[in-house]
């Protein structure tokens, strides 16, 4: 007679079915309870009011993670048409109006239900620093007009202000290291080199700088549980546009009617106005007495001589510290990798020189060749580039190389540590992201507590434990097994 399988008795089957249902219920509850909620986003808007132009950036991050693990990303940028807001000193209302196209675009891009909670900041840099230093009431009027224009939008406007050079340097450094994930992971940080139109910033962490020598250059942070002593300095007037003015001022000190400028291409000839050239606090005190109205600016295209002229705008005669970059400003020993952005990138990218594995000697040679290219030939090669920009790349490239190697002291050994970057993971390198992260408290001082297990690990453990419990439960019913599996009596 066929023996009946002892496990096929009704009681065992019922116990097993109930156990399986219990496990499925337990795992379902665990999965549902811990399922990530549908993603909601928050937004922030920052306007970078630079000396040459204004740009608007929209940032986005997951709503439930805004104070610790969430990644903030730039989702949109808009270049405001026209010059920087400092150029509207004589017509301040136009400064406000100029922002409206980009602001309308931001209104479309940020979901309507989030408008009122979206912070909007405007930060102005060296252009407004200069205007404020020479005419503070004009600078106030520009801010008033800009604030009135921005308040008309449905965002949470948090004010317009001038960033100090130190803030500009430090927030640029935070942006670069945040986007590189170096802060959260406590990795070696990257220095930040920022070149604007009116100022330039250098910021890095160096083992030989604890802030005691030249404390004015120190910014200390505690981020994600790590302490940083950042060295930072902003050189007002040493952005590439003001540096060009200073270089031209050097060459027009005696008020000549013509100058032969090695930083411009052979064949380049332009008539320039003395009053316009000297209309900036960076050069106004050097204006020659009784010059003619104009001078003829003639290019000779000689990189070596251009470098000599550029070097003259850096004063390295006095230094009361252990070492200085220039103008008596302390600078510790360069250390670590560097990201060079803003005009550093625009210029080196145009010149095809962003690859820092090209030896410095070869970079100089290429630049020499570029500067010597006749102006007419260059115009034919780049018909779409604005002539003003095209004419200045020889100067700008020479300025960048001189600043990096002769002033900051990058050598053949550590020049390859520099990376010319425009953006990191889709977000532009610059001070705006760091500024917003700081004002919205999105970088905690201490490392956030992370859950001990990831979601998948948690569900697996719950499942394994539930199965073990079922097996134990079935085993605990052993006394009943003989009853259940009683062999049929053969009489
Ligand atoms: O596509 C671009 C955008 C900007 N620039 C230059 O980069 C500098 C950026 O200056 P910005 O106004 O941003 O800086 P600030 O002086 O306020 O720091 C200026 O010299 C611009 O002419 C450039 O060469 N290409």
UniProtKB/TrEMBL annotation:
Keyword Disulfide bond: yes
Cofactor (UniProt): Mg(2+); Ca(2+)
Species of the source: Scophthalmus maximus
Coarse class of the protein's main subcellular location: membrane
Catalytic activity: UTP + H2O = UDP + phosphate + H(+); ADP + H2O = AMP + phosphate + H(+); ATP + H2O = ADP + phosphate + H(+); IDP + H2O = IMP + phosphate + H(+)
Location of the protein in the cell: Membrane, Caveola; Membrane
Amino acids binding ATP: 197-201
Pfam families: GDA1_CD39 (PF01150)
Top-level class of the enzyme under EC nomenclature: hydrolase
Active-site residues, as the UniProt record annotates them: 168 (proton acceptor)
Protein name: Ectonucleoside triphosphate diphosphohydrolase 1
Topological category with respect to the lipid bilayer: Multi-pass membrane protein
TM annotation in the entry: 12-32, 389-410, 456-477
Claim: Hydrolase is one of the keywords in the record: yes
GO CC entries: caveola
Gene Ontology MF term list: apyrase activity; ATP binding; GDP phosphatase activity; ribonucleoside triphosphate phosphatase activity; UDP phosphatase activity
Subunit structure: Homodimer; disulfide-linked.
EC numbers: 3.6.1.5
